[in-house]
Description:
The protein is of the alpha+beta class. Helices cover 27% and strands 29% of the residues.
Amino acid sequence: MPETLKPYQTITDFISGRQVPNIGAEENRQALERFLVEQKGYLKTDIEVDVDLEMTIAGSPYRSQVDLVVCVGSGKTRFMAVKCAAASLGSREREILAAARLLVQYQIPLAVVSDGRTAIVLDTVSGKKIGEGLAAIPSKKQALDMLKSVELQPLPEKRRQREQLIFRTYDTDNVNVQRNL
């Protein structure tokens, strides 16, 4: 393993129990993980951490990760994709929208960007902001109720390439993340 240029400390991830580098927005992610479990009623098993996102752009593979994906229902439907940010939330809205549109065969219904203290909640299909603040993040019960009436829509193929380019453009700005160590 190559030597790391800057030393870093590790912390224990609340969801996975793994040791993770305490860099970038990691402390914010830990705060949000705790909030989702302790305040919103999700189980640790409902939350996926560092979910792989792979695509091919102009014939070249591109690999990244989505910070958190919240799953609900008996089929563990991926319901909410989350980007944890260290600073301006508004500057990361478009990135998490693209990720939520690309991660699985349907558009994940909600896209969230949070710094652990506040959040912006977006409807993935329309791209519209539907709430602000941690209170706007649906509880597990609310998510289960929403899942009953939401139609899981695929991303139209003609938009896929555009969303991939948008995601990659924003994602390449994420330099202080674990996968780049």
